[in-house]
Every structure is written in C-alpha cells, then in structure tokens.
Amino acid sequence: MKQKLTLIGFGTVGKGLCEILKDKSQRLNNSYDFDYEVVAVADFAYGNVYNPNGLDIDLMLEQANAKQKFTKDLSELDTVSLIKECNADIVCELTYTDLQTGGPAIDHCKAALSTGKHIVTSNKGPAALFYPEMKKLADENNVKFMIEGTVVAGTPIINLTDGPLGGCEISRIRGILNGTTNYMLSEMEKGMAYDDVLKVAQDLGYAEADPTGDVEGFDARGKVTILANIVMNAGIKIADVSCEGITKITLEDIQKAKEQNARWKLIGSVEKKDGKVIGSVAPEMVDLSHPLAGVMGATNALTFTTDLLGDITIVGPGAGKIETGFSILTDILSIHRSQ
Ligand code: HSE
C-alpha cells in the first residue's frame, strides 16, 4: 500500500527522513508492504512544491544540500493552503520549534488534521502547548496525531509508554532529555570552551535553530511537559515546570565535579507527589557510580519508575539527522501498519 507524504520543512529532519526512505524502501516494502510517494514539500528557504503523482526527491535533496531553491513542480500555494489542498495521507510537520506560541507548526497541524490527514511531527511546540486540542481534532477527523520524535528523537519513549508499558503505573520519569547540552558538558570535560562546543553541536545538527532553547533548558522543559501530560495525564503547562539550564556551568565547575568523582548533567524530571505532578529541569552533579553519569555525548537516557517492573531505563540518541528522521519513519509505519 502506498502512503502519500507531505513534508513541511526540508531541513535536517526532512532530509534525514528522505534519505532513510530511499535507503530502506525495498526492505520496508518486503517487510510491511509499505510504499510511499512524497507529493508535496514546503520549505521557507527552498520553496513550495507539489505533484500529486510524486516529486523528484533525488533532485530536491541535491538542491537543498547545495542550498539552492527548488526548480521543479513549483506551487503557488502558501503552506497552509498546500496542506489543505494536497492529496497526502500523512503530513510530516518538521519546521522549527516555537515553545512560546507553537507557531507556525500549530497552523500546519490544524490544517492537516481538519482536512483528514494524519500528522507526524518532531516539533515540540504543538505537542507541549496544545496536545489535548490536537488529539481531539485528530479523533474528530478519524486520523492520528503522532509525536514520537518530540522526545529523545527516534529512541522509543512515547510509543514505549503507550505500548509495552501501557499496563504499568508510571510514578516518576527522570533523565537526560537534551542532546546538545549533554554533548556540550561531555566535551567541556575534555577542556573545550563553551562557545566552541556549542558551535560544534549546531554544526552536527543537535541544537535547536535558536540554541538558547537548549542551553537555557527550555527544550528539556518542553519535553518534560509532554511526558507529564501524555504519560501521566497531568494537564500542566510549560510554565508550571521549573527550569534552569547549563549557562552558569563553567569549566571550573566541571573540574571540581571531577575531583569529587561526579559529573554535571542537565536532569529533567517529572514525578507524581501527593496527587500532584511536579516537573523540573536543572543541572545536577551526579555521582560517577550512577548510571546517568556514564551517558555521554548527544545520547539521552530516561528512567521510568513503574509499579509492576520497578525501574526501566532506556538509553539512546536524542538528536541528529538520521536519529530524528527515524522517529518520523516509526510513526509513519505505525499509521501504515494500523490500516
Ligand atoms: N535540540 C534538541 C536536543 C534536539 O539537543 O536534544 C532534539 O529535541
């Protein structure tokens, strides 16, 4: 069965997804009878393109990698109209995250869901700010609002708690939720200066478009909010989660921690306490004997405290082109396999 896809945003994640789809098309077809066609792409840098019979993805990857505008199948439609009018089954919302307003992604999600198209997104804005509204709109239109990529890239978190851990009561989630800052803290331990290592994290595609979101802890706070609301049904707002980033951590602090057999980590946590759900993000000096202390680079790790299984820890990539591209593929496949 062929899934027709529209990609909103053709940056790191969109290109990563296309590369995976190209590389794995035969395997996905053999294993899941999955076939695809990208019918529309909208990108503010490269332009909007639409061909109901399928776009030339090789050409688009070539042009985007060369930072050139698209030249084939150009569309006059603005992005919201394109989403509404295209013949896609699934719209992948892959634009930049805005945790203040959710825009412009929120308009893209509404346009897709209200016209009966599934949304798959790695954009934290709509999920952190408007999850209940998006879920309701999706349910009303008999489609899905899928957000695996919003928390820890393609490492299964949302799907894990909703699927295999579905029968467990989860009372606490705690761990490393931001790849950029974990990468920075790891490299700073080797002596690299804060600004230099932030630049490398941006070049590697880990950091947000505005890296303030990473270093101030806002990105992790968005993820804590998503986990609190989806896994614990907390109904909390981003502002309810206390937040401190890593901007005040110096090379000296890192050295001091080393002398005390410890390591700084930016820890996100959400916990049920006295009937309330409390969320927080803050740097913590973690003893080297603790499993989280050994998690280095852009890797993330989360421990779920459950009633039936005790602690379950999952460690995996939390950022990156292919890693986040995979999160989109996993949700696309999940929609495909449920049909
Ligand atoms: N900037 C984010 C991070 C990307 O570094 O974890 C994934 O949300």
Shape: globular
Q: Please report which band the strand proportion falls in: under 5%, 5-15%, 15-25%, 25-35%, 35-45% or over 45%.
A: 15-25%
> Residue share in helices?
25-40%
Distance between the termini: 10 Å
Q: How would you write the strand order of the largest sheet?
A: 3-2-1-4-5-6
Mean pLDDT: 96
Q: How many individual β-strands? A: 12
CATH superfamily of the largest domain: NAD(P)-binding Rossmann-like Domain
Name of the CATH first level of the largest domain:
Alpha Beta
Low-confidence stretches: none
| Overall number of domains | 2
Largest sheet: 6 strands, mixed
CATH topology of the largest domain: Rossmann fold
Q: Structural class per helix/strand content?
A: alpha/beta
The CATH architecture of the largest domain would be: 3-Layer(aba) Sandwich
C-alpha Rg (nearest Å)? 20 Å
Number of distinct helices: 12
N-to-C series of helices and strands: EHEEHHEHEHEHEHHHHEHEEEEH
> Which ligands does the model contain, each kind named once?
L-homoserine
Protein architecture, described:
The protein is of the alpha/beta class. It has 2 domains: 2-154 and 321-337, NAD(P)-binding Rossmann-like Domain (Rossmann fold, 3-Layer(aba) Sandwich); 161-317, 2-Layer Sandwich (Dihydrodipicolinate Reductase, domain 2), CATH 3.30.360. Helix content is 40%, strand content 23%. The strands form 2 sheets. The protein has a 6-stranded mixed sheet with strand order 3-2-1-4-5-6, with helices on both faces. A 6-stranded mixed sheet has the order 8-10-9-7-11-12. The relative contact order is 0.15. Bound molecules: L-homoserine (HSE). L-homoserine (HSE) is lined by residues 153, 178-180, 206-208, 214, 219, 318-319.
